[in-house]
Amino acid sequence: MNRFARLTVAATLAASFLGGTAASATEITFYYPIAVGGPITKVVDGYAAECTKAHPDITVKPVYTGSYQDSIVKAMTAAKAGNAPDVAVLLSTDMFTLIDDDLIEPYDAIVKSDGDQAWIKSFYPAFMENSQAEGHTWGIPFQRSTIVQYWNKDAFKAAGLDPEKPPTTWDEMVAFGKKLTKRDASGAVTQWGLEIPSSGFPYWLFQALTTQNGAILANQAGTKVAYNDPKVVEAAQFFADLSQKYEVMPKGIIDWGTTPKDFFEGKTAMMWTTTGNLTNVRNNAKFAFGVAAMPSKVRGGSPTGGGNIYIFKNSDKAKVAAALEFARFLSTPERAADWGIATGYVATRPDAWETEAMKKYAADFPPAVVARDQLKDAVAELSTHDNQRVTKALNDALQAILTGAKPAQAALDEAQAEANRILASYQH
Question: Same domain for 158 and 50?
Fold first, then answer.
């Protein structure tokens, strides 16, 4: 039975269960966050239309909800007002918050068939670390990522560096950054060596540094953090030193949204950002560029990132059944491949990389495989209970450190104390 036949059966059964008829279409609301550049709404609208065209008994209504931060607030506000979305793409790290507020269905409670069980097991294990908790699967990986480093090959050549060799260690990154930082006659910087964004998702970019320094920021249960671990403090000091000591990066807070634009305009020769910006860079960089895995200190690696598909609780079983089938529709190997090609996000399951479309894309554009290959060194993105407040404590500390307002140790000791206070009620 193909997926659309399954969808028909599921919708028919659900309609029968409610005393309705299969002829009356089930409309589901799909919250989608626009957080990365590119014509993404057209792609998402296309998927919704494809699903409806292939199965007239389900109508998918996309609602574009802004940034990830805006989206979780809107979804939770709507849910508490009795008007929850049926399905939503929200951060994988929102999982504990959604569980604690009893807003989402665990997939294992609503899937029934062996095929559904196999589907849940079909995704990369690194992505499932932020999708499973308490013995349940709460989210399905959709637009998932790792952080990668991008470099301007023309700028490398002009600085006397090998344009085919990115930095592979922290020391090389600093040395390359010094050669790549250019100043005019008055001493003003015209090209920075490196930009690592510190707004928007500062803890996430910082987590790449803590990972490379051998630190893990939170336990798997989401009940404890290690913000003032000596390795974390050392990573924070290095983050600040890139601008304050080595002078290879702009001082203060570097904007998440404008970092790719700075790269396109030659204002920075290297940048760290999500692989979800890969298609954006490919379309807008007017120079030869490279994409590489993260540099290492004691190890390599990056946190995973990005969004999962969540199904919200609903007494209307037809809507739950339709939401499940739409989640399956969005995450087939073919669609995971198509989404990866359209956006640059990592196709979330190994068999997506075996599709003809993805094999051709990877052969034509080798940078596409960098983030996938980095998954072997990836760690779970920082995620805890009461996640927004716990990560805000770290973000505030990083802002203080990067602006020079507080020393690293003091700022992170304060962040640890605040996180301990917030998480105390979750520690049994």
Answer: no
For the domain that residue 322 is a member of, what is the CATH number? Answer: 3.40.190.10
> Alpha helix locations (H) across 193-229?
202-212
Within this chain, do residues 257 and 137 fall inside the same structural domain, yes or no? no
Quote the tokens at residue 245. Answer: 């000591």
Number of Cβ within a 10 Å radius of residue 316:
15
Residues 359 and 403 in one domain: no
Nearest by Cα to 141 from 158, 155, 124: 124
Full residue range of the structural domain in which residue 336 is found: 3-145+305-375
Q: What is this structure's pTM? A: 0.88
CA 278 to CA 246: how far, in whole Å? Answer: 28
- Three-state DSSP at 140 gives strand
What is the total count of domains within the chain? Answer: 2
Locate all alpha helices (DSSP H) within 291-332, ordered by sequence: 317-330
Q: How confident is the model at residue 93 (pLDDT cuts 50, 70, 90)?
A: very high
> Distance between CA atoms of 372 and 64, rounded to whole angstroms?
27
> By the 8 A CB rule, do 423 and 225 touch?
yes
Q: How confident is the model at residue 17 (pLDDT cuts 50, 70, 90)?
A: very low
Structure confidence at residue 35 (pLDDT):
53
413 plus 293 within the same structural domain: yes
pLDDT tens-digit map of 97-140: 999 999 999 999 999 889 999 999 999 999 999 999 999 999 99
- pLDDT tens for residues 267-289? 999 999 999 899 899 999 999 99
Shared-domain flag, residues 119 and 152: no
